[in-house]
Write the structure tokens for this entry.
Amino acid sequence: MGSHGGYKVLAEIPYAHAPAVHGYNGRTLYINVGSGTIESRPVTQAMKDIFIGGRGFGLWRLWNAVSPKTQWDDPENEIVISSGPIGGITTYAGTGKSLVVSLSPTTGSVMDCNVGGYFGPYLKFTGWDALEVQGKAKRNVIVYIDGTNHVVQLLECPPVDVNTHVLSEKLTRAFADSEEPRDLAAVSTVTAGVGAEHTRIGCLNFSFFDLKRKAVRIKQAGRGGIGSVFRNKGIAALVVKHTGGVGLEMTGPADPERLKRAGARINKEILTLDASQNDMRSVGTSNIVEVMNEFDLLPVKNYQYGSHPEADRISSPVWRTRFGQGMPDGCWYGCTMSCSHAVDGFALRTGPYKGDTVLVDGPEYETAAGSANMGVFDPDDVLEYNFYCDTYGIDTISFATATAFAMECYEKGVLNESRTGGLDLRFGNGEATLALLHQMARGEGFGAVVGEGIRRMKARFARDYKADPAFLADIGMECKGLEYSEYVTKESLAMQGGYGLANKGPQHDEAWLIFMDLVNKQLPTFADKAEALHYFPMWRTWFGLVGLCKLPWNDIEPADNRKTHAGIEAAKVPEHVENYCDLFSGVTGIDVGPADLIRMSERVYNFQRVFNLRMGFGTREHDRIPYRSAGPVTEEEYRSREERYDAALREKAGVDPTGMSTAEKVKVLRAFREKEYETLCDAVYRRRGWTKDGVPTLDTLKLLGIDFPDVVDVVRNHDHATNR
């Protein structure tokens, strides 16, 4: 079929480009990488009204592509990428997000990820509201969306190093019109390396060209193994090129002046207040390390402990001295928060690129905290594993949490050097940690075992090594098959619920309530917690519908926010909520208030819950959490915070621990906290309009307007099965 730039063209279609109108192009792009089918699919008014965009479009397209029997590695599984109606505007901070949806290799159900970089906005600017990729290629392929010549091509990828730092740089230069920085910045790629190919915890890397550094940089769609789906499909890369510039007009807004006014408000706040609040422009999310350590919330040694005396070695003052290029340092045009920092000129000490000097994107908080979770506090080790996870296409959160679990199993005698292939997996052994990572990338040795994730490790260790399944369940920090992100939740019941009740699994982006609940004491009752576990997951869901980053919402606040508003209302940051109403109305022309934004999310959130149910999950049993998420599992763990736990027994459980053995105290505290969690689930289910089994009621589906026949059938079939 010919070639393009040295790449053999396997299939192609031209398309007529039309600019977006009120945030939408009115069509999505479908590509089957196995059959070579490429087609345009219409976006209906109902899609826009009910699913909005972003994560909503992804869920709807995936729902119609798969069946209840579809597995993550079946050809019919899809990867859907969409920005959303607000995504790509340049007058407001945090508008460069893409949302990625697929069936997960770790959970078996629906996964969604929110990621920065240029791909989502460029996809929209080239004429598409979403990209839907299905099928399996027999050999590595590249999907190329050429927004200059308005053609979509499926290309054969020649033998190449698929690791991201190599391939993204190569493809950026191959598809750019010239070596001029502005032309290089017109190309964005999505890649996943050999680690995604050989594990279930692969991530996707979305690129952007850093004009100051004159280098390709990346952001990750990390959770749930979507990068593993990508490589399983034989996709080497997605490439989009947009040479038409960026600006407010690219989304076809209904009221540009309204967007400009909202942008002026947030930009003034960021420029004048950020340095005295979270200092995101200088240190990004790494500012949280020292805060979590101070409040005993930093995970250490597989979440056994919440602080460590060496935590200062990986805290933000260290990264402040290591980050290059100063500020701002953002992953999308016009974002004044500019929190996407990187370390320049890092010399690698291990692995296939040993001796190379590389750029390391990050570390973000989760990556640094994950290192603490493994007991590793050497900043060079953090950067080394940060870089290699990224280029291999391995989620740093799942890698760290899974490795920490294996380390505890090693120290507790479940594993030994014979079983790990000679790896001394004691907490704090950075050398062994990196060796394990390189094994994962090759699909070899004990690395291949850890790369399967915690859920499968638990089953393997119980089966092959006769380990106690109950103990493994207690310390294996996963829920729904997804590894926990990096916060200690033992003293925050609301945060336990935020993790356990999250649709996709324990990820903080849905309900980060740990400060409201534990530190600020704003959620004293079950009703308060349930209300927060309704509002905040719905509010955070909304960012993923429209193409936004949540950080400008509450990592910067108006100076008078805490004076003007109290308690939960202050945590909502009402002025910023009004800004977001202005953004949605200014782009789409539809006047909305705060309640309308929540209702948008309720529709999609409940639809996703039913989607989980359709795939065989989505009930109360799947919301159960490992006990370490709620309290101390071992006597050693209890004694490390004995005063605190004794006080909890007296003041909350109404039990006097005097004269009790540590084992007895562990048992009594556990019974109390497990009952509390079940009571919380009951309260949240009621607030969300779900049954006691955690299933949306038919009345809830009807109220939200998502009572489609096939959705109703899923719920009715479940009700019939459970009531027989």
User: Anything to note?
Assistant: Residues 3-246 form a domain with the Aldehyde Ferredoxin Oxidoreductase;  A, domain 1 fold (CATH 3.60.9.10). The first strand starts at residue 3 and ends at 4.
